[in-house]
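Ticket opened by: R.M.
Priority: normal
Category: complex prediction / small molecule

The reporter submitted a protein together with iron/sulfur cluster and asked that the result be attached to this ticket for the collaborator who will pick it up next week. Submitted input follows.
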Amino acid sequence: MKKLLNTLYVMTSGSYLSRQGETVVVRQDDEIKLQLPIHTLSAIMCFGQVSASAPLLGFCAARKVTVSFFSMSGRFMARMVGPVSGNVLLRKAQYRRADDQAFTADIARSFILAKIANCRTVLLRASRERIGDTVLAGAADDLKTHLLNLSEPIALDRIRGKEGDAARTYFSVFDRLITSQKEAFVFHERSRRPPLDNINALLSFVYTLLAHDVASALEGVGLDPAVGFLHRDRPGRPGLALDIMEELRPFTADRLVLSLINLRQIKAEGFEKTASGAVQMNDATRKIVLTEYQKKKQEEIRHPFLNEKVVVGLLPHIQAMLLARYLRGDLDGYPAFIFR
Amino acid sequence: MFTEDDLLPISALQHLAFCERQAALIHLEGEWQENKLTVEGHGLHDKVHEDDAEVRNGVRLVRGLRVRSLEFGLVGAIDMLELTPVDSAEAGGVALPGLRGRFLPYIVEYKRGRPKLDHCDEIQLCAQALCLEEMLGASIAESAFFYGTPRRRHAVTLDMDLRAETGRLAVRLREIIDSGQTPPPEYAPRCQNCSLIDLCLPQAPRQEGSVSRYLKRTINEVTSEETA
Ligand code: SF4
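Result attached by the on-call engineer:
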């Protein structure tokens, strides 16, 4: 399997990135803070006031290292990639199939089956420690019903409907998965624009990180992250990246957020409510989240379809690969990631 | 006879001799995964192509020559061509554009690392020779690889068998490109040396129905897990 390379996160305002030979140099106040060989990196993510020289950007493009810029709060602003991967045949297959109703419904059903199954597993794992929590058990049973409803091909809008129902069920009990620091971390419902409580702020930030990894992985295998199957085309929205995220979210993002809170790795002090009610994390908290996210990427699991040991960080790449192989006709379906 | 627009890269023959799927992934689907080996390889070639001509011990060295064959439909480049002056056409000498006299052409292709010549390399060398023969009206009996460590030359005789094999691969390459179909993978020991292994996924289950079986089975397993 491909090696998992590092992502360089640049969080300090005023940082300046440039190239020196085969290395990436990070300067702050004209002082070199960090110098890394390019071949150890797969991506550079810049948060807030960070700038980069044109030669560095060109260098990164040539070496297939994506450079992305985010606002301080983690809102995606821009991603710099090199020339479009030469694979026109694959992109044409993707576009053709995105317009094919039956095909689209088939892929979308895979995404959602996996998402609901994974949500259910998250609930079940948590309910093990809370024997007798009938609410959790009830939600898990509801999700099972949704899964069984999806066992035969159905129309795309009905898949979307099931997806919405399942998400509501899942998030309606999400608060019960928080087992420590209950006062500071209360969850009512998902709020994104902007996040209105600490948990939503955390979820949004981790989803941003995951979305970035998925979009890069799709671009890396030559797929267009903007043209999705479940998420229809809307300018500026990475539809396909959101599609693949559905199945990866519970396992990679939600469980991370839960363990950050439950293991007290982050604290209430790391969050701040602004005048509008929107919640922001401070730099220190963001750093902890990034570190733990990176750690999680190193964890090894057995891929359920490939039956091979892989690290979590490669899941976006592997799923992008499997999707590409399906679009090319190498596989008879899209084997979404379902964890056990 | 092919036209210039139809020419396929010589390197594709090498990939084809290694694995048909690899050749299709690279030359049909435009996949190219740089691994360490290929990156180092580029570095070496950059140097080889740097200056274009010099004379050493009376032998003229020409670097980075672009060659093609309309008969075989191939195009590529030669790292270095050695031109030894000879007296007559009888000795196999050919006249060259811009040079006086006649010369014996000898192709030298640079290889990184240790001598480990495989069939794919010989095919590449032969294809280069076929192109050069067509362009110069020459006939080339032998060519060589030059290895970095240790610095050593290894000669390859361009016999009938090798030529026939190279020609056959050129035909097969065109069939694959024209068909637009990437052949399915076949997991083999060579896959471990293939830079495209994680694009190709040669070990992924691939029988008809394998994905729907996988989805059914995993969903069953997950849903049979009971609530505590
Ligand atoms: S991994 Fe194996 S089957 Fe796939 S392209 Fe490489 S050599 Fe061919």
